[in-house]
Amino acid sequence: MRGLAGAFLRGSDLELQPYAAAYGHIWEHDELSAESHPGGGDGESVKDVAARIQLMFQRLEDEHQQGGLNILLVSHGDTLSILQATMTGCGAQLGHHRRFAFETAELRRL
């Protein structure tokens, strides 16, 4: 993935950068392919994150089968938007998870 100046960016190069500056590149990359790894291969693909989320939900369901519980999930906005896209059955459109973007400190029922 290339930055604004055309230099190759690794995912670790984006750590601690301002939100829009760092993630704008990632979101563009995600829309091109949910299966590609941003940052020269050292970042997770959207599909990888979705698979991890599905495993987490399976574990939560297995551990809390009695139901009737409210579970609060706290995470980064990108992970939460991928979670929302995954749980609403977006499938092939996972790369467009930004349409489910979260605001800072937003609470949302899933």
Structure annotation, total helices: 3
Order of helices and strands: HHH
Strand content: under 5%
Q: How far do the termini sit from each other?
A: 32 Å
Average pLDDT for all residues: 78
Largest sheet: none
| Radius of gyration computed on alpha carbons | 15 Å
Structural class: mainly alpha
> What overall form do the CA principal axes indicate?
globular
Portion of residues within helices: 25-40%
Can you tell me about this structure?
With 110 residues, the chain is mainly alpha-helical. The chain is 39% helix and 0% strand. The protein has helices spanning 19-32, 46-63, 77-87. Helix 2 crosses helix 3. It is globular.
Tag the structure with descriptive keywords.
single chain, 110 residues, mainly alpha, 3 helices, 39% helix, 0% strand, globular, disordered N terminus
Task: Write a brief structural summary.
The chain has helices at residues 19-32, 46-63, 77-87. The chain has 110 residues and is mainly α.
